[in-house]
Amino acid sequence: xxxxLFIAISALLMxxxxxxxxxxxLQDLDTEAVTKIADSYQIRLKPHDRLTxxxxxxxxxxxxxxxxxxxxxxxTGTPIDGNRYTSTSTNTLQVRTIDSxxxxxxxxxxxxxxxxKTREEVAAEIARLIREGGHLNDPTVNIQFxxxxxxxxxxxxxxxxxxxxxxxxxxxxxLAMAGxxxxxxxxxxxxxxxxxxxxxxxxxxxxxxQEIFTSPYYYIQQNDVIYVKPNKYKTATGxxxxxxxxxxxxxxxxxxxxxxxxxxxxx
Length: 267
Description:
With about 270 residues, this protein is of the alpha+beta class. Helix content is about 30%, strand content about 30%. The chain has a five-stranded mixed sheet.
């Protein structure tokens, strides 16, 4: 009996250790190694990205036209001398969309090429065009994404679409926003789907290996889709529950039919 208990306890401990190992990230990470991080990574702009562009200067009234779709003059008040009105200028910050050719339409200076460039590069180009056009001597330009997001689905705690507020969002950061993988999520089989330059690509990443750091999919881009597949236990459980529901429904239907036949026969 004691031998049997020893074997049973050992088996349970081994199963527990194996289960824990399946759930661990970066299992081959060398904690003593020093690795240089590529700090130059920034998200590149794409057609249909939506941006807010803010131009500033020591003279705000001269910068204002660059921050609106149009400079609107609205007539208010009462007539002066019978034919003139007081005038006020209304400025509203606009969300601008990069067109399908990768161009961004700006007030006064016209179209600016954006596709494949970083926000910093486009901001510098807009400032240059404003200076060279003689509009402002000291423009500073700030560009922010209006609605950049990533979609995370599958076996995570909180699947959904999440806004991105930084140029350096890693795969692990994104999964953390979704509450991490559930215990049923496959750590070795996480798919990232990406659309770029009119082409859809995808790759499978192994979160248990430090090789994810060298993947071009490690840093997330706008509109990426991250899919976490369920492990075989979750899949088997789902199939069992589906089959169980089907057979229960079938038996219930058969009982109802039999009851109806008995009732009709008694009549």
